[in-house]
């Protein structure tokens, strides 16, 4: 919207613009260099929650691609450890029987009770799953707003994440058992419907080294006094523990008085916990894939917070995305110039795939969740 001055809770408003800038630069370079090659820009819809790229992979959109290059905004700049959790989003729909909650409670069977019992069951399961796995839920339909009605219908949406697809599907089966148990206890019926799903990220060491070398050649991103002053104001709204945790996620020491990072953190930084999921993961199983993270906002800004949204169109975000475009373009040009790099990237990918079979979590018959509010 032209009048909007905000961004997105994870900085995704910057993803496409930086990639378009990079793709355009590479296209211009290809035209002048005379080298034979093609750069393709992918507009990827529904990347958050909708697994847009997973559906594109299923449709074969990446079948003729040698290398995929992307980025993500961050508080820090670098090529971090390629790690994300496989995830799947599933709606559990409970059906019971409506009745007057006071006049005939014994005739009703509450779908909302079933949802509550399911959540309790899953919360008890947490102790008995890998500490790296994650399960979250949101109440999509509580059945209504009238407490004097026994709710005949209720829907809870589950997001189940684990380090591998295999581990994730095992957890899904356990969660489904709990849902069935909750239905049995409440004499309701339950059905489940998968909405989306992403594979975990597969790294590619040759491409990561090449991207990191481009970063080092460029030097770290630089921000001006106004960018830093704004970041300081944002940090005043954060807690100290937000800032400390931000450094901790990348295995870095806290730098006092630093609101915007102007460093490049070492190749492979980042801890293998406290990470989310990305639909880039699914792409990385079918194409050698590399991505960088670039400082675009104040250190300590929580994901999915108003502070991140508020910094989405700020000066630092703009400088960060332009920097990301240069790193991505430089990496792509490096692949065009260095046949050996491409060969090594492909060899690494093939070696991994030979040992790790892949099934896209977007099954052949899964329809894209065009309306995430529908159920
Ligand atoms: Zn994100």
- Give the strand order, joined by hyphens, for the main sheet: 4-6-2-7
| Assembly level | single chain
For the CA atoms, what is the radius of gyration? 23 Å
Counting structural domains, the number is 2
CATH architecture of the largest domain: 3-Layer(aba) Sandwich
The level 1 CATH classification of the largest domain is: Alpha Beta
Task: Kindly name the structural category.
Answer: alpha+beta
Give a quick rundown of the structure.
The protein has 375 residues and is of the alpha+beta class. The protein has helices at 15-33, 52-58, 111-125, 165-186, 205-218, 225-236, 240-249, 280-286, 306-310, 315-337, 339-355, and strands at residues 68-74, 86-95, 99-100, 134-141, 149-150, 153-162, 189-198, 289-295. The chain has a four-stranded antiparallel sheet with strand order 4-6-2-7.
What does this structure look like?
By secondary structure, the protein is an alpha+beta fold. The chain has two domains: 228 residues, Aminopeptidase; 113 residues, 2-Layer Sandwich (Alpha-Beta Plaits), CATH 3.30.70. 40% of the residues lie in helices and 15% in strands. The protein is built from eleven helices and eight strands. Strands 4-6-2-7 form a four-stranded antiparallel β-sheet. Helix 3 crosses helix 4, helix 5 crosses helix 11 and helix 10 packs across helix 11. The mean pLDDT is 95. The chain binds zinc ion. The site of zinc ion has 3 residues, from loops. The site of zinc ion (ZN) has 3 residues, from loops.
